[in-house]
Amino acid sequence: QFSDTGSRKEHVKITSESKPGFLERLSETSGGMLMGLVTFLLSFYLLFTNEGRALRTAKSLDEGLSLVIPLDSIHSVSQQNEGRLVHLAGALSTSKPLFDPSYGLSIQAVKLKRNVEMYQWVEYEESTEYEENGEIKKETKYSYNTEWKSEVVNSRNFDREIGHKNPSAMAVESFTAVSPNVQVGSFVLSKGLVDKIDNFKQLSLANLEDPHADVTRGGDYFYHSENPRRPEVGDLRVSFFYAGLSGDDPHLGPADKVTVIARQRGDELVPYHTKSGDVLQILYAGDLSVEEVFQKEHASNTMKTWALRAGGWLAMFVGISLMTRIFYTLVDWFPVVRDLVNIGLKAFAFCVASSLTLLTISIGWLFYRPLWALLIGCLSVVPIVVAKSRVPPKKQQ
Question: Could you list the residue ranges forming a coiled coil in this record (predicted)?
């Protein structure tokens, strides 16, 4: 079946295979049990190391807050602060503008990104499975649409490449230029600090002329196309983004201000190594006080900690579910029993994963905060107790 709705094309493919027997499904379940065991063990490692990382980071931030020295001036380098953790805020400055000679564009900024997109065919796939005449049939609908993509879409992997062929490469490449020398006042930022300047904004091309005869400007894009309003597969469009405006610009405004906390080494700002083993080199956009910076860092550490805790719990839940899947397979022939067993296995995986996650977190805290570790360890038995209390008592004989 084939249909064409404008630039969108669709076709449907139906494949069938015999329904797997009991031994075949049992073999597949055994493989899943092995994957589940690996996932289960990895979840312990993730949860345990995450707690150590979170506490180490928190101690490092507290150490940094107690040692940091706000600078009185960013335009002079004081030898008294050599090797110490310092705080300063000011406008970014760079030694020279960044250029893209191919498009006649320059800007005084820390970073300049050229983003190239190509008009290409994109394949989408939707599948449904159903049983018919003792066979498992899979109906797959493939749809094709033309879109702007910043990466080359390999049409050789399409189910139907004929009529949907994409070029194998782009005639113009994307790139990001970074200023070799970035300063705040008299202080030079380290590479790690420069990497943190990533608040990219799209550059307006309204004040630029078309760089070549085969390039047309439309809005904030340069088009390599005969008709940008009706592009063809293989046409390109180019846009530009900048981060860290480092000079007053009549169209973009004043230079961006940043707040930095790092170690002073001469006129350079470099990483500071804490006693806990962490590294402090912090940069935020805007003019922030010392307290505001460390509040943001603590909030970021808390968010990362909870995200990894959730990821560890999910990995443990999936691992337990895969390891206990064999019980579902054994009763798969009995629909009512199968559904009840499936609900029970999910509840079992949820309770065990929750208890083991809390227990692992408490062990991670044992060497740092023993009282908290004991409290969390006690909480780890709650899911099991709750689950056991919901089981109806056996009837007396």
Answer: none
Which of 245, 266, 287 is where one domain is finished? Answer: 266
From the CB of residue 109, how many other CB atoms can be counted at a distance below 10 Å?
A: 30
Calpha distance 255→75 (Å, rounded): 16
Q: Is residue 141 located within the same domain as residue 223?
A: yes
CA 189/CA 256 separation, integer angstroms:
15
CA dist 271 and 180 (Å) reads 18
Q: Is residue 166 part of a domain?
A: yes
pTM equals 0.79
User: Which carries the bigger pLDDT value, residue 341 or residue 246?
Assistant: 246
What domain range includes position 354? 24-59+301-390
Top mean-pLDDT range of 12-26, 70-84, 353-367: 70-84
Whole-number pLDDT of residue 2: 31
Q: Residues 74, 91: contact at Cβ < 8 Å?
A: no
Instruction: Classify residue 69: in a domain, yes or no.
Output: no
Please tell me whether residues 210 and 82 are part of one structural domain.
Answer: yes
The CA-based diameter of the chain, rounded to the nearest angstrom, is 94
Q: Specify whether the CB–CB gap between 266 and 254 falls below 8 A.
A: no
User: Residue 326: inside a domain, yes or no?
Assistant: yes
Residues near 145 by Cβ (< 8 Å), separated by ≥ 6? 7, 8, 9, 121, 122, 124
- Based on the domain organization, do 38 and 93 belong to the same domain? no
Q: For residue 11, is pLDDT > 60?
A: yes
Exposure string of 145-154, with b = 16+ CB inside 10 Å and e = fewer, is bbeeeeeebe
